[in-house]
C-alpha cells in the first residue's frame, strides 16, 4: 500500500461552491496514503460553517446538493503546521478573498487582508511546504502579485487574465499540470488525478517522503 503521506498533514482551503468530487478525491487519497487532511476556512468568529455545492461534478448538471460542515479556522492554525496546502477549485478562492470585517466596503490597501489569503501567502513564503492550486484557485494569490510574479503556472482560462496581470508565466502544458519548485498548478478538475500525482511527487522531493 502506498503510504507516501504517512505522518504528513494536508490543509485544504474550502468555501461554498466547492466541487464535491474534488473533496471526496482528496479525502480518499490522503487517507489511503496515510496522511491527515484538515478542511480550513475563515469562520468569522463562528464555531463552524456549513458550505454547499450545486453540482455533482464539473461536467454534470445539477441533480443534488451536497453540504459539509467546517470547524477549523485559518486564523487558529499556522501554514507551517502543514506539509501540503491546497486551495480547492471552482469559486472557493473568490469567496475566501472576502475582506474583513465581513460585509465591509473594503479598500485597495486591504485587498490582501483576508485571513485565507494571508494563510496561503504564508505557505508560499515557506519553500518546505508544497502548495497546490487547481482550476480557479490561483485567485487566492492575486491579492499578493509579488508571490506569483515569475512563477510558472497553468490555470483555467477564467483566471488567466488575472494571473498574467499578477506577473505569472503561463505555461500551456499538454499535461495540464505545471510544477514550479514548491508550487503545483492544474488546469481544471478534469486533471485532478495528474495534479494530485504531481503534488505527491513534489512532496516526496521536498520533504523526503517515499512516494
Q: Can you offer a commentary on this structure?
A:
- The chain is α/β, with parallel strands linked by helices and 211 residues long.
- It is built from five helices and ten strands.
- The protein is globular.
Keywords:
211 residues; alpha/beta; two-stranded antiparallel sheet; 19% strand; Rossmann fold; 5 helices; single chain; 25% helix; six-stranded mixed beta sheet
CATH class: Alpha Beta
Largest sheet properties: 6 strands, mixed
- CATH architecture title: 3-Layer(aba) Sandwich
Number of strands: 10
- Report, as a whole number of angstroms, the end-to-end distance: 11 Å
Tally the helices: 5
Q: Structural class of the helices, strands and pairings? A: alpha/beta
Instruction: Find the CATH topology.
Output: Rossmann fold
**Which residue ranges are poorly predicted, with pLDDT under 50 across at least 5 consecutive positions?**
none
Which term fits the overall shape?
Answer: globular
CATH superfamily (homologous) name: Class I glutamine amidotransferase (GATase) domain
Considering DSSP H and I runs of 4 or more, what fraction of the residues is helical? Answer: 25-40%
Number of domains: 1
| Proportion of residues in β-strands | 15-25%
| Arithmetic mean pLDDT | 92
Order of helices and strands: EHEEEEHHEEHEEEH
**For the CA atoms, what is the radius of gyration?**
16 Å
